[in-house]
Amino acid sequence: MAYKFIDNYREKGARKQLVKLLEKRGIQDQRVLAAIGKVPRHYFFDETFWNQAYRDIAFPIGDGQTISQPYTVAYQSELLHVRSGDKILEIGTGSGYQTCVLLELGAEVFTIERQENLYNRTKMVLPYMGYHPHFHYGDGSKGIAASAPYDKIIVTAGAPLVPEIMLKQLKFGGLLVIPVGDEKEQKMVTILRVGENDFERIELDTFRFVPLVGDQAW
Ligand code: SAM
């Protein structure tokens, strides 16, 4: 894929329209909307497809994976209640778009991807765009114990269950946002760690994610 990093008036205008659309669809957190308004989503697309970059749709990024739909990115980001300086683990880097939104919200982001091509691509492209998460390659279904505990964990692929090992990597008061279900559709689930073995679980709307594949997953 040939990348081009030019943010001209047409893309800036399309991005503003996307933010308005997300607000209309129910995203209320102004900080999340501002972050979406800052990240040039077309940078994740080949120039041929720039006209698709600000539609509210998921889009293929190669290796059978997708850049998430902007609404989904905004929805998960809103649920995370990101505060500046939060230490966040993101499982499923994909294109890195969600990663950039979390960085714009002021988080320190640890992100892990199991597909080598995608890992290599984001590791090259994101710093070039001025975004600097901690990149990891491997199976994120086990979390990343080495840099735990985290304030927040976000999973951007559909899991069959909530991996216990992930819950143990949350700080007390920490929050996990994870889509859980079968291969066709998942419920967005938030889990707040309130004590050593105490967790509060809330089940929200239905989404369709690519599967979380790994030791603690499909
Ligand atoms: N939020 C990303 C974006 O905006 O581009 C999209 C993520 S995509 C829907 C889900 C990603 O999770 C895919 O890139 C997939 O390879 C990755 N994935 C699936 N299972 C994983 C695992 N066990 N560990 C790390 N990444 C995984």
Low-pLDDT ranges: none
- CATH architecture identity of the domain at 60-207: 3-Layer(aba) Sandwich
Largest sheet: 7 strands, mixed
Name of the level-1 CATH class of the domain at 60-207 = Alpha Beta
The proportion of residues in beta strands is: 25-35%
User: What is the CATH topology of the domain at 60-207?
Assistant: Rossmann fold
Kindly, what is the distance between the CA atoms of the first and last residues, rounded to a whole number of angstroms? 29 Å
> What order do the SSEs take from the amino end to the carboxyl end, as H and E?
HHEEHEHEHEEHEEE
The share of residues in helices is 25-40%
CATH superfamily of the domain at 60-207: Vaccinia Virus protein VP39
Bound molecules: S-adenosylmethionine
What gross morphology would you assign? globular
Rg (CA only):
16 Å
Helix-and-strand structural type = alpha/beta
Individual helix count: 6
Q: How many beta strands in the DSSP annotation?
A: 9
Q: If strands are numbered along the chain, what order do they take across the biggest sheet?
A: 5-4-3-6-7-8-9
Residue-averaged pLDDT, rounded?
96
